[in-house]
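FORM 7B: Structural annotation worksheet

SECTION A. Query
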Amino acid sequence: MVTNSTRAAHRAEEPGVVELNPIFARPGEATELPKYDFPPGESLPETAYQIVHDEAMLDGNARLNLATFVGTWMDDHAVRLMSEAADKNMIDKDEYPQTAAVETRCWTMLADLWHAPDHEHTIGTSTIGSSEAAMLGGLALKRRWQTARRAEGKSTDRPNLVLSTAVQVCWEKFCNYFEVEARYVPISLEHKVLDGHDLESYVDENTIGVVAIMGVTYTGMYEPVTQIAEALDRIQESTGLDVKIHVDGASGGMIAPFVQPDLAWDFRVERVVSINTSGHKYGLVYPGLGWVVWRDLESLPEELIFRVSYLGGDMPTFALNFSRPGSQVLLQYYMFLRLGRTGYTAVQENSRNVALFLSGEIAKMPAFELWNDGSDIPVFAWALREGHTQNWNLYHLSDRLRTKGWLVPAYPMPDDLPELTVQRIVVRNGFSHDLAAAFLADLRDEVAYLDALTGPMPTEGQRSGFHH
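SECTION B. Predicted structure
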């Protein structure tokens, strides 16, 4: 986490001005520009562009970032469309009614993809990302629970939400921001995901719902929604508690329909009342875009929908963000039209094939032991094999790979397995077999370098490369 104190330390270490290369500056322009004070005068656009371009260049090549789930490649037509629509305010449905219509088409298509009982008469929305979408799903669960409790004359104090310890941090934020107790079911070597085991110990009359993850951020594994629903069925039979499921399909929501079409995880499971996904992950769109869809109109409480008069029109909205660009929504529609079911199937199967190729080759290396192989979403993790070496760890390997341009995070597993450190690879559209082979060559080289050490590498200052 970057704190104010670390920012201050960084500022103290670096010069307070940007010095311009004389070839960038034009006659009459300043040769230095302040970094933290508002500039006193103008610069030519070419000069300002070059400064910002050079700063951003230091971030490295996003295509070689094997840590991120977020899309890092789109074709030239998409880039052109993004530029053309960057000025459209998505929330201003009165001024940009066609963009609003496209938004509706997109979430209706997703409702169809996810087997909603009547996909043309349900409800959904775009969001700035799947975190916002997840929070909207959580809010709907909380409001439904509150309404039901009030109707029974019962207290609405102390709502809780049941989820895995491997849940994405947005759910921790939801519980914190919206005053819901998080009840974490620990993962373990025997139960690598939330699978319904011992669920009755966590569910009670104050439970607003259970979150099932289609693609755990730590490892990419699916949580078995049907199995979780069956456990909740048994709980209802014995206690009368009717607990619903929200599926966090940030990644798997756009993988499973194409790669595992027969897997029941979506609205085919009756307890599932809402699903979120990231358009900017395996929806194949640049950031930031998320989606959330409810099973039917009754699943989203009407009181959560705001109707405001905005620029001369009546506008219903139930997103947390307000003004935001409409370009990503148009890009999503472009991708739906461009690929269709067959195209998305081909892209996602290719990504999974690359993941399986990579995980299979890494599994052959004596240094490593796989946690999973990428057969769910094309994401997999591995640990250093016990007893392989005392001279280096996965943090050292992550640093060595970074020198070749590859970003492959090393991080500890959740609190219940803190002693277990893993590395993870996310295979995305644009990461080809050729790039995978190049990565493997570098990985083998760096492992050989580390294995040849005659003494231990220093471990001071090592930190997790995972902050999602």
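SECTION C. Observations
The chain has eleven helices and 15 strands. The mean pLDDT is 90.

SECTION D. Sign-off
Analyst initials: ____
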